[in-house]
Amino acid sequence: MSSEARGQLLVLSAPSGAGKTTLARMFVERTPGAFFSVSATTRAPRGHERDGVDYHFLSPERFQSLVDAGAFAEWAEVHGHRYGTLRESVERALRGSGVAVFDIDVQGGAQIRERFPRDAVTVLVVPPTPEELERRLRARSTDSDEVIRRRLAAARSEVEAGAARYDYVVVNDRLEDALARLVAISRAERARRGGPADPAAAAAAGACARAQARLEAWAG
Ligand code: 5GP
Fold this sequence. Notes:
It is a single chain. This protein has eight helices and nine strands. By secondary structure, it is α/β, with parallel strands linked by helices. It has a domain at 8-37 and 98-218: P-loop containing nucleotide triphosphate hydrolases (Rossmann fold, 3-Layer(aba) Sandwich), CATH 3.40.50.300. It has a five-stranded parallel sheet, sandwiched between helices. The protein has a four-stranded mixed sheet with strand order 4-3-6-5. Helix 1 packs across helix 7 (175-192) and helix 5 packs across helix 6 (145-165). The termini are far apart. The chain binds guanosine-5'-monophosphate. Guanosine-5'-monophosphate (5GP) is lined by residues 39, 43, 74, 76, 78, 83-85, 103-105, 107-108.
């Protein structure tokens, strides 16, 4: 099978407050053939979430039996619940020719990258600075200082872990600009793996590569 006929595994991770979910949704809406991979989780559905659409909602026992059966391509514990990508979801994505978007945490993204090095593209979405993240977290929630401090500390470690392991960093300063960078990364990677050449995308993606060098604002 040529690389072009295989699906792309586009892994998106971000600390909460980075705007990843909006960015991912816009990417899927605007990219022909792109779709979300549906993860499994042990957490309860929220609001309008539907089983099989937003997540496969599983009991802890069922999740464990799938772990034991080796059914997950990756799984991780996030905020006290378990989340995982079913191997079948990855295999289905690879059999297709579109872009499968994985909205998963950094631990999971690193596992996907290790297991599918030819097909996975890992992208860390970050707010421009820790100060901007703090402003966004305070603006959108009624959380206590303590909760916000904990989120900020978690964000710093997620950014550090991602910077060390991920292929690209997209700084989400303005949504439209961040989206254009993400589109360029997906196209450039497709070209690199045997698709049609796309020099403009390669140049834009190049500016998001070398993850560690892009994160001075987050250092220290
Ligand atoms: P939420 O409960 O808010 O939907 O998601 C919480 C966190 O779990 C987010 O960071 C999300 O990216 C991550 N997550 C969702 N699905 C998966 C998955 O299948 N694997 C891993 N490792 N993380 C996931």
